[in-house]
Structures are given as structure tokens and as C-alpha cells.
């Protein structure tokens, strides 16, 4: 394993355990068994290290979502597959997922403008499917980007309930996830009245 990879892995572990405010280059160095100076060969400060962690996590989530898209499928089926992939990825990779969202905005270093495109790619994927659904008259949406963001926000809420262990113990997890995804998607489908 490369030293850079080890620094990232140790930083991720400490960030999740102690939070960004308590994360320090000295702690990372101690845990990795190197000098703090060694870390500065790869990252100029703690902010740059955090951005690298977030960027890597976003890349992995985006890659999983892109791999789930089947352009030949019906737009509703594509949305269902994308939302299930999002939820599955978050629950199977909770550390990666939490890295993206755990740092409060006031703690977050200024995110370079060009990096925002990676985050926007997720919404764009959803919005593109929604546009296709509008063209095929199966989805009823006024603004595809707002709807894409709404879908993401709902999925994030569902995932957060499960990851934070706040799901009511009387509610089984898988039926809750299935029902939530179904409700999210079907809120956008044009309801056809029988002839």
C-alpha cells in the first residue's frame, strides 16, 4: 500500500471517529506511523486532505450510479435502478457515504468550483432520466433538475435514518427501503386513468 493511500485510509478512520474539528495532521501521522512532514509531501494542509477524502468518496458513488444506468431501459425502470443502486451503495459503504455528508458547511474548506461538477453529475444523471421520461410521457415533472434534487434529498433522508440507526424497531429495514423507493419514484409517474 502506498503512503498516500495509507494516509487517506487513516484520515478517513479518524474523521469518522472524532470529527473534522479534532482531526489533526499529528494524529494522522501517529496513527500511520510516519512523521507529520511525510503527510505534507502529499497534502499541504488538513483542508486539502479532507477535500481528497470527499472527492474520492463522490467518485466512487458516481461510478456505481453510472454503472447502473441502462439507456435502453424504460425511464421509470432506470430511475428505480438508480435509486436502488444509490441506497445499496450507501448501506454497503457507510464510511464512504458518511464522508461525503458528515462535515458541517462551516467546517468545510472552500470546495474548488471545478470539483462541484462531480457532485452535480449525480443530479444530472437523475435529471437526464427524468427528461427522457417527460419526452416519453411517463413522468410528470415541471423542472427536471429540481425533481432530481428532490429525489436525491428523499433518498439521503431514507439512507440517513438507516445509517444512524434511527429506524423504528417495529419496522423491518428491507420493506421500509422498498416502500420508500417505490413512493419516491411513483410520485413522479403520470397516473393514467382507465379508459
Care to give the gist of this entry?
68% of the residues lie in helices and 0% in strands.
Specify Rg, calculated over alpha carbons.
Answer: 20 Å
Number of domains: 2
* Separation, N- and C-terminal Cα atoms: 64 Å
Overall SS class: mainly alpha
- Write the CATH homologous superfamily of the largest domain: Tetracycline Repressor, domain 2
Named CATH topology of the largest domain: Tetracycline Repressor, domain 2
Tell me the major beta sheet.
Answer: none
**The first-level CATH class name of the largest domain:** Mainly Alpha
Uncertain spans:
none
**Shape category:** elongated
Residues in helix, % = 55-70%
Number of helices: 9
Q: Got a strand count?
A: 0
Give the H and E element order: HHHHHHHHH
Name of the CATH architecture of the largest domain: Orthogonal Bundle
> What is the mean predicted local confidence, pLDDT?
86
Query: Could you tell me the strand content as a percent range?
Result: under 5%
Describe this structure in words.
By secondary structure, the chain is mainly alpha-helical. The protein has 2 domains: 44 residues, Arc Repressor Mutant, subunit A, CATH 1.10.10.60; 132 residues, Tetracycline Repressor, domain 2 (Orthogonal Bundle), CATH 1.10.357. Helix 5 runs antiparallel to helix 9.
Spell out the blueprint of helices and strands.
Elements: H1 3-18, H2 25-32, H3 36-40, H4 46-68, H5 75-92, H6 94-101, H7 116-135, H8 144-163, H9 173-186
Amino acid at each position: 500500500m502506498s503512503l498516500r493511500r495509507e494516509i487517506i485510509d487513516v484520515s478517513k478512520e479518524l474523521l469518522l471517529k472524532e470529527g473534522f474539528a479534532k482531526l489533526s495532521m499529528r494524529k494522522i501521522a501517529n496513527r500511520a506511523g510516519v512523521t507529520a512532514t511525510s503527510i505534507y509531501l502529499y497534502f499541504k494542509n488538513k483542508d486539502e486532505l479532507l477535500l481528497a477524502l470527499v472527492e474520492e468518496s463522490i467518485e466512487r458513488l458516481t461510478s456505481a450510479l453510472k454503472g447502473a444506468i441502462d439507456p435502453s431501459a424504460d425511464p421509470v425502470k432506470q430511475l428505480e435502478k438508480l435509486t436502488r443502486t444509490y441506497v445499496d451503495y450507501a448501506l454497503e459503504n457507510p464510511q464512504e457515504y458518511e464522508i461525503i455528508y458528515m462535515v458541517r458547511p462551516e467546517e468545510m474548506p472552500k470546495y474548488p468550483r471545478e470539483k462541484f461538477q462531480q457532485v452535480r453529475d449525480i443530479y444530472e444523471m437523475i435529471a437526464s432520466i427524468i427528461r427522457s421520461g417527460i419526452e416519453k410521457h411517463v413522468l410528470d415533472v415541471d423542472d427536471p433538475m429540481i425533481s432530481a434534487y428532490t429525489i436525491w434529498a428523499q433518498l439521503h433522508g431514507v439512507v440517513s435514518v438507516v445509517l444512524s440507526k434511527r429506524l423504528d424497531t417495529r419496522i423491518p429495514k428491507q420493506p421500509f427501503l422498498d416502500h420508500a423507493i417505490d413512493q419516491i419514484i411513483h410520485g413522479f409517474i403520470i397516473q393514467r386513468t382507465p379508459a
